[in-house]
């Protein structure tokens, strides 16, 4: 049996009607999850905001707007604007790094993005590095940069393919116990979740936490 406090639920489909979002949050409230990932703009939707703040108050559920979702290729200033919009609401931020910078070996720009966002963030950050589209060397390089700064690591948004267990092991070999690893993308059942935990994951992200806790 998985501990619900290592699971983040994700509602990132922006076409879901409001009543369905609230229904999902009601179900997840009973699960006592670690956190809930949402689009950053939902901080302006009062019924969602109120429900999540109650979940945070009553069950210490993390409120996790995802910044730069899904591609991370927006400008740094755009991401900072999203972060500012979530001041006083977010308890953790999942920030999609610009994978174009990583793939083009523009690591000075990766560092610049991380530093500027850290200057404006008022809460804990996890950097989404999008392992499904990176090489092993690129994963090692970007994880090394994160180690030089603050924040934990999230493998993927789930929009570019599943996270592979060998990539989780690779990240763990680089960070050791210095950073937490959140694994998302393709974790659809508890067997896969256990495999990722054994590989080094501390938190599992999924759009279907019930399947992992059944």
Short synopsis of the structure:
The chain has nine helices and eight strands. The chain has helices at 18-31, 46-59, 76-85, 99-103, 107-120, 136-147, 165-175, 190-199, 209-213, and strands spanning 7-10, 35-39, 62-67, 92-96, 124-128, 152-154, 181-184, 203-206.
Report on this structure.
By secondary structure, this protein is an alpha/beta fold. 44% of the residues lie in helices and 17% in strands. The protein contains nine helices and eight strands. It has helices at 18-31, 46-59, 76-85, 99-103, 107-120, 136-147, 165-175, 190-199, 209-213, and strands at residues 7-10, 35-39, 62-67, 92-96, 124-128, 152-154, 181-184, 203-206. Strand 3 (62-67), helix 3 (76-85) and strand 4 form a beta-alpha-beta unit. The relative contact order is 0.15.
Instruction: Determine the fraction of residues in helical runs and give it as a percent range.
Output: 40-55%
Major sheet: order of its strands?
1-2-3-4-5-6-7-8
Fold-level CATH name: TIM Barrel
Structural class: alpha/beta
What is the strand and helix layout of this fold?
Layout: E1 7-10, H1 18-31, E2 35-39, H2 46-59, E3 62-67, H3 76-85, E4 92-96, H4 99-103, H5 107-120, E5 124-128, H6 136-147, E6 152-154, H7 165-175, E7 181-184, H8 190-199, E8 203-206, H9 209-213
Parallel strand pairs: 1-2, 1-8, 2-3, 3-4, 4-5, 5-6, 6-7, 7-8
Helix pairs in contact: 1-2, 3-5, 5-6, 6-7
């Amino acid at each position: 049996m998985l501990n619900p406090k290592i699971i983040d639920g994700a509602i990132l489909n922006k076409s879901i009607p409001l009543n369905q979002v609230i229904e999902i949050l009601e179900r997840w409230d009973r699960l006592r999850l670690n956190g809930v990932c949402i689009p950053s703009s939902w901080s302006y939707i009062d019924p969602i905001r109120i429900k999540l703040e109650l979940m945070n108050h009553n069950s210490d559920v993390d409120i996790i707007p995802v910044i730069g979702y899904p591609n991370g290729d927006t400008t740094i200033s755009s991401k900072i604007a999203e972060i500012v919009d979530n001041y006083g609401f977010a308890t953790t931020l999942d920030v999609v790094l610009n994978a174009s910078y990583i793939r083009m070996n523009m690591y000075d720009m990766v560092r610049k993005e991380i530093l500027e966002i850290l200057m404006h963030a008022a809460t804990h950050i996890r950097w989404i590095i999008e392992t499904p589209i990176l090489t092993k060397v690129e994963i090692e390089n970007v994880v090394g940069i994160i180690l030089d700064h603050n924040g934990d690591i999230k493998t993927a948004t789930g929009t570019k393919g599943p996270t592979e267990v060998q990539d989780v092991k690779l990240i763990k070999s680089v960070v050791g116990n210095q950073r937490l690893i959140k694994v998302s993308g393709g974790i659809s059942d508890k067997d896969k979740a256990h495999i990722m935990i054994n590989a080094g994951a501390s938190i599992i992200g999924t759009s279907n936490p019930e399947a992992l806790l059944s």
